[in-house]
């Protein structure tokens, strides 16, 4: 019978699969810059319609890498705040992007637009495309995780 007061055998090993406690400022900024540069190359202004616009935003390896990277970070930690303390608007945007799968396509489009602007690379024609997306309420309100299923 195991004595519950015997703590010598109660050793717990903690495994940190995603290194959630590790926020590297340089890597964070690098993935955000790569995603922004990739969005600039997408020429969202030339999107034929809202579906094409959403595809240009999300069918993009650098954007996906950034969103997944941020989703694994402890965005409410002191280290995360320290990494982006130079730009509080970028910090607020990044915190919201952690939950990108549960946000609507419209909300994600706004966050990506804001991120690009804060990274000093505003996306030409982005606001017009966001406005067109919101005109199609059903598509704009669709959550990313539901969009990915379709």
In summary, what is this structure?
The chain is an all-alpha fold and 150 residues long. The protein is built from 9 helices and no strands. Helices cover 59% and strands 0% of the residues.
Number of helices: 9
Q: Please provide the count of β strands.
A: 0
Shape: globular
Tell me the fraction of residues in β-strands, as a range: under 5%
Biggest beta-sheet profile: none
Give the structural class: mainly alpha
Averaged pLDDT: 89
Unreliable runs, pLDDT <50, ≥5 residues?
A: 2-6
Q: Quickly count the domains.
A: 1
Helix percent reads 55-70%
SSE order in H/E notation? HHHHHHHHH
Distance between the termini: 55 Å
Radius of gyration: 19 Å
Protein architecture, described:
The protein is mainly alpha-helical and 150 residues long. It has one domain. The chain contains nine helices and no strands. The protein has helices at 25-42, 50-58, 61-71, 78-83, 88-97, 105-118, 126-135, 137-140, 144-149. Helix 5 (88-97) runs antiparallel to helix 6 (105-118) and helix 6 packs antiparallel against helix 7. The longest helix is centred in the N-terminal third of the chain and has 18 residues, at 25-42. It is globular, with a radius of gyration of 19 Å. The chain starts with 24 loop residues before the first helix and ends with a helix. The relative contact order is 0.16. Residues 2-6 have low confidence and may be disordered.
């Amino acid at each position: 019978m195991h004595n519950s007061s015997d703590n010598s055998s109660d050793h717990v090993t903690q495994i940190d699969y995603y290194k959630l406690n590790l926020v590297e400022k340089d890597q964070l900024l690098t993935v955000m810059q790569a995603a922004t540069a990739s969005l600039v190359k997408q020429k969202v202004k030339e999107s034929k319609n809202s579906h094409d616009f959403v595809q240009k935003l999300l069918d993009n390896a650098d954007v996906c890498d950034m969103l997944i990277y941020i989703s694994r970070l402890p965005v409410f930690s002191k280290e995360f705040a320290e990494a982006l303390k130079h730009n509080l608007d970028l910090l607020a945007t990044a915190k919201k992007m952690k939950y990108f799968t549960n946000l609507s396509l419209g909300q994600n489009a706004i966050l990506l637009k804001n991120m690009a602007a804060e990274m000093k690379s505003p996306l030409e024609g982005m606001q017009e495309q966001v406005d067109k997306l919101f005109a199609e309420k059903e598509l704009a309100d669709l959550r990313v995780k539901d969009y990915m299923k379709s």
